[in-house]
Amino acid sequence: MTWREQVREQVDAWRRDGVFTPRSDSWLTGYDEDFSRRLGARGWIGLTWRGRGFLDRFVLTEELLRAGAPVAAHWIADRQIGPAVARLGSAKLKAGLLPGIEAGEVRFCLGMSEPDAGSDLASVRTRARRTDGGWLLEGQKVWSSHAHRATHAYVLARTSTEEHKHQGLTEFVLDMTSPGVTARQIPDLRGPGHFCEVFLDDVFVPDWAVLGTVGDGWRQVTGQLAFERGGPERVLSTYPLLALTMAAAGPADAGRVGELVARLTALRRLGKQVAARMDGGEAPIGPAATLKMLGNRFEVDVIEAARAVPGVPRAAIDEALLASPGFSLRGGTTEVLGVVIAREAMGAVA
Ligand SMILES: Cc1cc2nc3c(=O)[nH]c(=O)nc-3n(C[C@H](O)[C@H](O)[C@H](O)COP(=O)(O)OP(=O)(O)OC[C@H]3O[C@@H](n4cnc5c(N)ncnc54)[C@H](O)[C@@H]3O)c2cc1C
């Protein structure tokens, strides 16, 4: 049995047994800590640093998203913080975090964006001041998904202000139960959900919880964005709706649905290329941005097709529609991805 067949058989069995109910956008809004522990018990979290690699994770995540499984609780840790800790973390950080991530017990939120720093991440104002044995973090993060129930946060903060704004940034990992951390939910179109703001009031972070090199945060985070942008979740957020649309489609809808399937095939090829390059040790920033830009367009076009095909369940369309405003914003807006792609192309020409 191939790896894909093994995963598909198990995930389909869980769905049939009612372990989860398929939904669109399950990697962000399908939050189920027990399901994450279930994957952890099978050894299916942390493949990329446990000797399996990004292509194997690509297959696993495709199958989970295809089924609309609730993977949000461990997603950030599995996708980008675990690999970063494995690569850049101190021995103590690795020993303290990786086993918990692999078990589905350690759940991360991302503290990148701030009220005045979104696309322009180098404008972050959260400050880290030196203190005995570590750092004191002071500032505010916003849009941090699931921060109110995360065990840990990744925080990008400024450790010095003297240089150009792309310098003097540092990445930290902090325990959400540390004194001085407050997470508050922000309602979205659906009411209270994943969005949060996080306030940091002189939060102590020990030296061993600095990720990588002090002051090198910009270079590190831009590399990590390839991991954040280059996965199948940037294409498959509405796959459960596409499956329902294909099931309901009649001969009159063949052109509309066929075009989506052809686009999906091309996007999957690109996704596999990105994963293969990550397995080769690269951070393919431009190809990952391309995948996200084209993938987000595809995810929205699936909803439009579903609306045009009679018989697709209204609730499934509504669920995808309410999630869709975030597709082209989260992880970098379409316009910013265009800038990233153009810059890389110009560099290649120069
Ligand atoms: C569903 C969702 C989940 C999220 N989860 C997280 C999370 O967990 N952690 C986290 O830290 N953040 C998270 N974010 C925040 C996300 O990263 C930011 O929304 C995104 O980076 C854009 O920043 P902004 O909202 O401040 O918009 P701005 O940066 O203010 O941009 C406003 C507009 O200006 C355009 N623009 C900006 N700069 C340029 C440019 N150079 N060229 C052309 N156009 C430009 C943008 O495209 C956009 O249309 C999430 C967002 C969403 C929607």
Automatic annotation (TrEMBL):
Cofactor(s) required, per the database record: FAD
Acyl-CoA oxidase/dehydrogenase middle domain sequence ranges: 109-203
Annotated Acyl-CoA dehydrogenase/oxidase N-terminal domain residues: 5-105
Superkingdom of this protein's organism: Bacteria
InterPro entries associated with the record: Acyl-CoA_DH_CS, Acyl-CoA_Oxase/DH_mid-dom, Acyl-CoA_Oxase/DH_mid-dom_sf, AcylCo_DH-like_C, AcylCo_DH/oxidase_C, AcylCoA_DH/ox_N, AcylCoA_DH/ox_N_sf, AcylCoA_DH/oxidase_NM_dom_sf
Annotated Acyl-CoA dehydrogenase/oxidase C-terminal domain residues: 254-345
Coiled-coil regions listed: none
Keyword Oxidoreductase found: yes
Keyword Cell inner membrane in annotation: no
Keywords: FAD, Flavoprotein, Oxidoreductase
PANTHER family xrefs: ACYL-COA DEHYDROGENASE, ACYL-COA DEHYDROGENASE FADE34
Homology family: Belongs to the acyl-CoA dehydrogenase family.
Listed name of the protein: Acyl-CoA dehydrogenase family protein
Species for this entry: Paractinoplanes bogorensis
